[in-house]
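Example record

One chain of 387 residues, shown exactly as stored in the release files.
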Amino acid sequence: MKTIRLYYENAYVKEFDATVLSCVTVKNGYEILLDKTAFFPEGGGQKSDEGFIGGVAVADVQEVNGEICHYTTEPLEEGVAVSCSIDWNKRFLRMQNHSGEHIVSGVVHSLFGYDNVGFHMDEGLVTVDFNGELTREQLDMVEDKANEAIYADYKINCFFPSADELDKYDYRSKLDLTENVRLVEIENTDLCACCAPHVKSTGEIGIVKILDFMRHRGGVRIVMKSGYDALLDYREKYRNVYEISGLLSAKQECVAEYVKRLMDETDAIKRQFYQFRLSVAQRDKESLKYTNDISYLITDGYDADMMREVANYGAEKSAICIVFSGDDEIGYSYIACSLSYDMKKVAAHINKTLNGRGGGRDTMIQGKVAVDKSSIVAFLNSVDFNG
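Predicted structure tokens for this chain:
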């Protein structure tokens, strides 16, 4: 006996009574079959409904070999009547988002002739892939047209045409369907094959917002939200803009301009600071110490650029130049350079003797050692990298 699909008869059924046809043990729980259900199984890019059957939580719903299978972590007695309820808040948000996606896909198809070739709906977020590229200006046009359809409160009709009738309809579909085709018709806007529940009219969607877009496999992928999810998205972004405007003492509509100005000023400061650090390194080149065929500098506050500057200079004055920066508490980072030694072997020697780690290429190495300054000095005065 196949389960009666109440979500096809009425997408607004929130609670219903049913009889448990079977309950079998499966991996991680139980698989429940009912004589009727309002739980929509995962499909068409939309996740399954959640809710309760006889007080037992439903974690997932799948269609398997034509049967609607409800998955729970607790068993239910076969043959008993149970009260069931779906998580209506999640269902309605998904209906808003899915119906909003149909409108956007229909508008894109009518304006530009592109097909929807991919659709995924996660919690509060929808991605749609089209087989053609669109600009931000074109997507603004799509968004305007989609919201005009929402304001018009067009009816949404879901139906199963007969096989003979199906040929009469020009509908969108990613698959070549021939039987049991369910069509979702949005008045004056779109006609598409779809298995999911939808709202009764476009006005229930409230709003469609295209949030982002990117090139994807020769076309475009858009990110969008509809309905209450779009409202929550706007609310969160408004809070951010409100806080940023307060921090910048700027009007909300001007925060982007102010942030750009701050970024430009920060970049200028970074460039100045970079030049300053290099000037310090240039000065400290004259502070290099020499022992045997090694030149070295032990300092603090150096970053990698400063260390490389001195190491490269020292490698022209001696066989090997090693620069250490840090302190006895946190250890010392090092960069070493040579024009004649195999620095990978040097790195192995340093790391083994000074409890360090690091490596690099033939001419330059870098790493960190966990010893104090006196140990480094003793090492440098006694080491023979030729040995």
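Notes: The chain has a mean pLDDT of 94.
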